[in-house]
Every structure is written in C-alpha cells, then in structure tokens.
Write a structure and sequence with these properties.
Blueprint: E1 3-5, H1 14-23, E2 35-41, E3 44-49, E4 55-59, E5 66-69
Parallel strand pairs: 1-5
Antiparallel strand pairs: 2-3, 3-4, 4-5
The protein binds zinc ion.
Zinc ion (ZN) binds near residues 27, 34, 49, 51 and 52.
Length: about 70
C-alpha cells in the first residue's frame, strides 16, 4: 500500500507519480535531481529539494511506500 499525504490539491494518480519521483531521487514538484537527505527519525527520512525548497518525509528511505509533504 502506498500512502501519500499532500496538503496541495493533487489529481487521483498523483500519489503514485509522486512516489515514483521520490524513489528515483527526483523532486515531485520541480522534477530535478536535487533532493538532499535530511534528519532521519526511526524508519523515516526527511528530503529537502535544494532547487524549489519542497520538503518531504518518506519511509522507508530506500523503497519509499509513504510520503508526506512537510514544507
Ligand atoms: Zn524541487
């Protein structure tokens, strides 16, 4: 099961696209490979896009099944 929490309005298939981008180390917002790993808590990890500033909390870090927009 894939879970995506996004406060922005998202089309129905956006969740899987978002996860796919994140899994490929790509920012879902600006599509650039500029995700910077941040603080890690338990099985989750923060990712910050150095290009557009979008921030995500993903879990688990290697094969993402959960993503939450945090900024
Ligand atoms: Zn970005």
């Amino acid at each position: 099961m894939i879970v995506v929490e996004d406060t922005k309005l998202a089309p129905p298939n956006a969740a899987e696209q978002m996860i796919t981008h994140l899994r490929m180390d790509r920012c879902p917002d600006c599509q650039k490979h500029s995700l910077q790993p941040g603080p890690r808590g338990g099985s989750a990890q923060n990712l910050t896009c150095t290009s557009c500033g979008a921030r995500w909390n993903v879990a688990p870090p290697r094969y993402i099944m959960f993503a939450q927009r945090i900024g």
